[in-house]
Design brief:
The complex is a heterodimer of chains A (446) and B (331).
Chain A (H helix, E strand, L loop, with lengths): L1 H12 L2 H8 L2 E2 L7 H20 L8 E3 L11 E3 H11 L4 H28 L8 H24 L3 H15 L5 H9 L8 H32 L3 E2 L8 E6 H26 L5 H4 L18 H9 L5 E3 L2 E4 L2 H27 L7 E2 L6 H20 L2 H8 L3 H45 L3
Parallel strand pairs in A: 4-8
Antiparallel strand pairs in A: 1-5, 2-3, 6-7
Helix pairs in contact in A: 3-5, 3-10, 5-6, 5-10, 6-7, 6-9, 6-13, 7-8, 7-13, 12-13, 12-14, 14-16
Chain B lengths: L1 H15 L22 H26 L6 H27 L5 E4 L6 H14 L6 H20 L25 E2 L17 E5 L11 E5 L19 E5 L11 E3 L11 E3 L6 E3 L5 E4 L8 E2 L1 E3 L5 E3 L22
Antiparallel strand pairs in B: 2-3, 3-4, 4-5, 5-10, 6-7, 7-8, 8-9, 11-12
Classes of the chains: A mainly alpha (446), B alpha+beta (331).
Chain lengths: 446, 331
């Protein structure tokens, strides 16, 4: 039966040698190598649930009156997009499960990408020949952030409207061309023409998923042609990769992880409420809500926008740099710019042009680890600032005081962390050296 | 009955027996190394798959039921557990039912210098017949760039790229009445202190950044409005754009001191990034990131006691852009 199948495939595609090689492809084993896979499986759940949602969602801002089963909204003027999102939650069977699973999957997708990126960074997996793979991963992270933002913006609830107002303002704040770009994309001044919703929709359900899918394919192909990296170990060298074959060893493990990710996402989608759009209500330009938080992965941008003190850069009556540019555009550009530049910067400063198939442990590259921890601390401080209003509500710590603490921490904490991390790495190396010497001394006489 | 019992036993034996012993074939070198059987693990996997089947069936049953309370939760639980059981079955299979080999493989060579050299020569020799290479490259570049630009130009139709005049326009002009969200005109004497009202222009769209207003009443003696705004606040009633000048959110927080001697002065606060504006001094920024004052709208009280706009805003409304200080708001 299986032999017949293989024969059928081989006789038509001449792929038996390739297939045999693929089945015996070697996967080095370490738990942290699975983070990227988690992102992959979350993406698959996103595509599956997203297709289902698209069957019911109506991307139109045409005005209508809600008359569904959710009583508090009855008779309210809402857009077709919002009406269909509420109907999808209450009228369509299993609709709410799939909508919430979709939303949870987006949050997990970005979280898994970020953790995967941290692993790649701190083990030096981005070095030649895998720098291209790393750049494509970063591009996917950026695309995923935009994709998630568009996803929750489509629904046209109060939270999405406020998020779009902020996005519009950040684009407006770009020096010289901001207003023109914003008018172009929105089709006029905010809230924009009626075609803006369909522009977001085609980007969210077609352009960006295709882009992510394409980048993902190239990313995985690049991983496969150069093989996985591995930690130093017995028989594991720059020339030889040691690990479990794709089949039969890795296949059930990977499949198990895929089902586990899907299980967690559907359990979250069914049991843990997320983005209850019926509570936020429909968006109108003159309305806003308190305490509505965007998805976690936009927290660093909210924080950056909040930390900037009050000023616009002006020359006479010409406004050179409106305020949201600093936090909303320059800060994320700096973060992504530094991440993209890092492989080059590291080559520049260490003079290391070599090929690397073996990974570093973080302590083995003290400067990289120190700079990395300082850098991510810097981003994390800003991320925390995005939650300062929540901290005020839960803990009663003055919002203004918190902002000043974060403004200081933004500049002071990274250098402190840099020095501290470098020291810790050296200490860890020292401890190891000491242990090795003791072992040698004890084994010596015998 | 006895026949049925025999059939049942036979079926169980048939299903659960581990198959016929295969006839001994001549020994070949194995690809996957042999490992011992573990019937208990097989039983566990079978149980997990059975549980997954039951959960999946439960999902279908829950879906089919009408008017079930907590349907979303039950659906999620059933599907999630079905997937979790399959995941567990896969993990047990990986750890107990298959041989975990440790294979070695060579990494691909870092580079193929000979091939790279050949590729370079291949391209180079292919262009041997072309004598004016640079000129042709320039020509191809020009054609490519022009074609690329031509293909991009239709994107200009997406929106008004050069016309930013609309950003200055608001529906407010002298004489326009202030109405609430139901369209009822506001009377001056119903505006109370220590709260705020949202007003819209009568007979105009509300879904414009220039439309919504914050209306409050303060003690006229407290006001320190900038020069040229005398008479903008009849009876101490003030109107400001409701849209934050920082990032365009609607301002929906109004801080009003209950005990002015000890508490901070009145302020508008935006819920997005907490830009804070002082209504007594003409909407100046007192905290937060906003880089520009909140535009004020002059008010009139007409003979019927209704609130009307006394003119246009003190500045452009909404988030800042390069031209936000070049002109004032227009009606």
């Amino acid at each position: 039966m299986i032999r017949a199948l293989f024969r059928f495939v081989d006789e038509r595609t001449a792929s038996a040698p390739l297939l045999r090689k693929a089945l015996r492809y070697v996967f080095p084993d370490h738990w942290s190598f699975l983070l990227g896979e988690v992102a992959l499986y979350a993406f698959i759940v996103l595509v599956g649930t997203g297709i289902y949602l698209a069957f019911f969602f109506d991307p139109s801002t045409a005005s209508t009156h809600y008359n569904g089963s959710y009583v508090p909204l009855q008779g309210h003027e809402v857009s077709q997009a919002y009406r269909s999102a509420v109907d999808l939650s209450f009228k369509v069977k299993a609709g709410l499960l799939l909508r919430q699973t979709h939303h949870w999957a987006a949050d997990v997708f970005v979280a898994a990408i970020v953790l995967h990126m941290l692993r790649i960074f701190f083990t030096g997996a981005f070095r030649k020949p895998r720098d291209l793979t790393y750049f494509i991963g970063l591009a996917m992270l950026g695309t995923a952030l935009l994709e998630g933002y568009l996803g929750y913006s489509l629904v046209d609830d109060l939270l999405s409207g406020m998020g779009l107002a902020i996005g519009y303002s950040v684009l407006m704040s770009v020096p010289f061309v901001g207003a023109n770009l914003a008018s172009l994309i929105w089709g006029g001044p905010f809230p924009g023409s009626s075609s803006f919703e369909s522009r977001m929709y085609i980007a969210h359900v077609f352009l960006l998923p295709i882009l992510i899918g394409t980048l993902l394919t190239v990313h995985l192909a690049l991983v496969a042609v150069r093989h996985h990296t591995q930690f130093r170990g017995r028989r594991k060298t720059e020339q030889k990769v040691v690990g479990i074959p794709a089949f039969p060893g890795q296949a059930p493990r990977s499949l198990g992880l895929a089902f586990a990710v899907a299980a967690v996402l559907f359990l979250l989608g069914g049991l843990v409420q997320i983005n209850p759009v019926w509570l936020w209500g429909p968006f109108h330009v003159g309305d806003a809500t308190n305490g509505a938080q965007p998805d976690w992965y936009l927290g660093w941008l909210i924080g950056a926008l909040r930390l900037v003190p009050s000023f616009d850069v002006t020359i006479g009556n010409y406004t050179l740099v409106p305020n949201p540019f600093w936090g909303g555009a320059l800060f994320p550009l700096a973060v992504f710019g530094l991440l993209f530049a890092w492989p080059w910067l590291e080559r520049r400063f260490t003079g290391d042009q070599a090929f690397h198939n073996l990974l570093d442990r973080p302590r083995d590259a003290p400067w990289r680890t120190a700079v990395g921890v300082a850098f991510f601390t810097w981003v994390f401080v800003v991320f925390l600032a995005g939650a300062s209003d929540r901290v005020f509500i839960f803990l009663g710590i003055s919002y203004g005081a918190q902002i000043w603490v974060y403004r200081v921490a933004f500049f002071v904490l990274p250098p402190l962390v840099l020095v501290l991390t470098h020291r810790i790495c050296l200490e860890l190396q020292g401890v190891e050296k000491l242990k090795r010497r003791r072992r040698e001394a004890e084994a010596g006489p015998a | 009955m006895k026949a049925l019992w025999r059939w049942l036993v036979a079926t169980i034996v048939l299903v659960f027996s581990r198959g016929r012993r295969r006839p001994q074939v001549p020994r070949r070198e194995r690809i996957v190394p042999p490992g011992g059987a573990s019937p208990r693990a097989e039983l566990v996997v079978l149980a997990l798959l059975g549980a997954a089947t039951l959960c999946a069936i439960a999902f279908i049953a829950i879906y089919a039921l009408d008017r079930l309370s907590h349907q979303t939760q039950l659906l999620g639980l059933a599907l999630g557990l079905a997937l979790a059981f399959i995941a567990a079955a896969c993990i047990v299979t990986a750890n107990r039912l298959i041989v975990t080999e440790e294979l070695e493989e060579d990494y691909p060579p870092p580079a193929h210098p000979g091939q790279v050299e050949a590729l370079d020569r291949l391209v180079d020799e292919s262009g041997d017949r072309i004598s004016r290479k640079r000129l042709l490259t320039l020509g191809a570049g020009a054609a490519g760039a022009a074609l690329g630009a031509a293909l991009l130009v239709p994107a200009v139709s997406l929106g008004p790229l050069l016309d930013t005049a609309a950003l200055y326009r608001t529906p407010w002009r002298r004489g326009r009445r202030l109405v609430d969200e139901t369209g009822r005109p506001f009377r001056a004497d119903e505006i109370e202190e220590a709260t705020f009202y949202t007003a819209y222009p009568e007979g105009a769209s509300r879904e414009e950044v220039g439309s919504p207003l914050l209306v409050i009443r303060l003690d006229p003696k407290l006001l320190r409005l900038p020069q040229g705004r005398a008479g903008w606040a009849p009876q101490g009633i003030l109107a400001y754009s409701k849209i934050c000048t920082h990032a365009g959110c609607a301002i929906n927080l109004y801080r009003s001191p209950l005990f002015p001697a000890a508490e901070p002065k009145p302020a508008f606060v935006c819920p997005c990034h907490y830009s804070t504006f002082d209504p007594m001094t003409g909407g100046t920024v007192i905290f937060g990131p906003a880089g520009r004052n909140l535009p004020q709208l002059p008010l009139l009280v007409d003979s019927g006691g209704h609130l009307r706009a006394g003119g246009v805003f003190s500045g452009a409304v909404g988030p800042s852009w390069w031209g936000v200080r070049l002109h004032g708001a227009r009606s």
